[in-house]
UniProtKB/TrEMBL annotation:
It comes from Knoellia subterranea KCTC 19937. GO terms for molecular function: acyltransferase activity, transferring groups other than amino-acyl groups. Residues 9-166 form the N-acetyltransferase domain. This is N-acetyltransferase domain-containing protein. Pfam families: Acetyltransf_9. Transmembrane segments: none annotated.
Length: 326
């Protein structure tokens, strides 16, 4: 193995037959060996996506996948209402035995080149402190720190929030509060009613009924919809899920489809009261009624031009549902 060199590898766009060796490598490299949901999770993200199938690239040695890189398709609306095609840099892995050969960089730059030629506009992501320097060296730029907002359920919740500074669990906790989101968004009237309150300014996700149905469809994430008025979706609603973060129970506010701050604040408080969550968390750059600023705590959004220039940093109006780490 020590004699393998970068030039011994074959780098190309992935094809379905690559799954036979790519999936075991991904499971092993990313610590997903015992996750029973992993394959179906990847299928939901990358095959069922309302914005299109995710393109991916592989590095092979003797016909076996030893490196993998994929980009999740996404679409934004600009402040002028035009569609901006984008991809999000997500799943990537290298077989531990092949690290040090520059596979991550090679696959990423190959993907960037191919996507640019295909006419995709930009790539975006929120890399962690370990991976961010590598992206910056490949032409990514820091766009802005996304502003986080929180609402604690009470004084005791502040302690739970302060002492649970660990990554949140991936899979959600069970709750019967609100409606199952996948069932709710299968109802055209409910979806149409909530979309009357979709964000109308800034650079925001192109929210369609198909997008909302896909985005909330994966069962283990247990997304819920809480309506302001059960019989009138035009009154607004909120998409959320419950997840563990250390000893705290966190209500992640994915979307707020509300007409004003009063409705939004009431819905956040209802989520906390009815679920018993210690606090609610979301982003304050989109609809953020009821969430108090948490200075200098948000993820760093990075972008890279492909066939278009990234938006101005001040124009981004994202929600937690747009950048949730999944």
């Amino acid at each position: 193995m020590s004699a393998v060199k970068a030039e011994d590898l074959v780098v190309r766009e992935a094809v379905p037959d690559d799954d036979a060796t790519a999936l075991p490598m991904l499971r092993e490299s990313l610590g997903k060996v015992d996750d029973p949901h992993y394959e179906s999770f990847l299928r939901w993200k990358h095959k069922d996506n309302a914005f299109g199938v995710s393109p991916a690239w592989v590095a092979l040695h003797d016909g076996v996948v030893v490196g993998y890189r994929t980009f999740l398709r996404w679409e934004f609306l600009t402040p002028e209402g035009k569609t901006l095609r984008a991809v999000r840099a997500v799943d990537t892995a290298t077989d531990p035995a092949y690290r040090g050969l520059g596979i991550f960089r090679t696959l990423t730059l190959q993907g960037v080149a191919d996507l640019t030629r295909a006419g995709d506009g930009i790539v975006f992501n929120t890399p962690n402190d370990q991976s961010r320097p590598g992206y910056l060296k490949m032409g990514w730029s820091l766009a802005r720190r996304l502003p986080v907002g929180v609402m604690p359920r009470g004084p005791r919740a502040l302690v739970a929030m302060a002492t649970s500074k660990v990554p949140a669990s991936l899979w959600s906790e069970q709750t019967e509060v609100g409606l199952d989101a996948a069932t709710a968004f299968a109802d055209p009237d409910l979806t149409k009613g909530l979309l009357t309150h979709a964000p109308q300014s800034g650079v925001r996700t192109r929210r369609t009924p198909e997008y909302l149905l896909w985005r909330t469809a994966f069962g283990p994430l247990r997304y819920r919809v809480l309506l302001a008025k059960p019989d009138d979706p035009t009154a607004g609603g909120m998409v959320f899920r419950l997840r563990r973060r250390g000893d705290a129970l966190e209500a992640a506010i994915l979307e707020q489809f509300v007409s004003d701050a009063i409705v939004g604040s009431r819905l956040v408080r209802s989520v906390l009261h009815e679920t018993g969550a210690d606090y609610a968390i979301g982003l304050r750059s989109g609809r953020s009624a009821g969430l108090l600023p948490l200075p200098k705590q948000g993820p760093l959004l990075t972008t890279r031009p492909l066939a278009a220039s990234p938006p101005s940093p001040k124009d981004w109006a994202l929600t937690l549902g747009d950048i949730e780490l999944f």
